[in-house]
């Protein structure tokens, strides 16, 4: 019954394809190779957990306020941009924890970054029958989501939460600097969850890698408005499936950036 619904049918077919590929991959491994794969998965999940914990403890604005807040407040030239500086710290922490450090881990293990979702050409992870062009999928999803973004931008709960930087509309400088910092974090977020975690696990775990990467992705949204928090579950599975079907995370990156920028512009307006 569910397979008759186009989107659900596509997801289920893609997940079966991932599982079949993982089954063949595990069957091809020797005992030593299998043990090495298990060690890699343990290491990957351990590093990911450490990075998430460090980011939550030391990479957020409260830590900035504790460490630098008094100094910024006492400096007249900085005090005007106190809030923006705290978001700058938050943005750099996201870029390091979600992007740079995972890339260093892969490089130290001798891996290729393009094998973790960064390939522009889209080296697909699935059979020919369900391969998708990432640029076209981005345009399809954007056309489907933008009307919804416009509609929900009038909701008071979302207007109270976006833009995160409440003084973004104070000047063009504030707006441009904030958006550059804010939107860059989505590249790092997509890389961590749909690149580092997902592509790092999918050969051995198949479709289970989607659900493993979806859980922490949902947890970083739990303090957001309920529709966004619950929507992150479906978004994590859909964007992850598309990343594997296209062999690239760039459709998700561009979609995230486009929706976030649209939400900020509409909420400010």
Describe it for me?
The protein has 269 residues and is mainly α. It is built from eleven helices and no strands. Helix 6 runs parallel beside helix 11 and helix 8 packs antiparallel against helix 11. The longest helix has 34 residues. The N and C termini lie far apart (43 Å).
Summarize the structure.
The chain is built from 11 helices and no strands. By secondary structure, it is mainly α.
Structural class: mainly alpha
Terminal CA distance: 43 Å
User: Average pLDDT value?
Assistant: 88
Radius of gyration: 20 Å
N to C succession of SSEs: HHHHHHHHHHH
User: How much of the sequence is in beta strands?
Assistant: under 5%
Number of strands: 0
Report the total helices. 11
Main β sheet profile? none
Low-confidence stretches: none
Mass-distribution shape: globular
**Helix percentage:** over 70%
Question: Can you give keywords for this protein?
Answer:
mainly alpha; 11 helices; 269 residues; globular
What's the layout of helices and strands?
Blueprint: H1 6-27, H2 31-58, H3 61-74, H4 76-79, H5 82-108, H6 134-152, H7 156-159, H8 172-205, H9 208-219, H10 226-246, H11 250-268
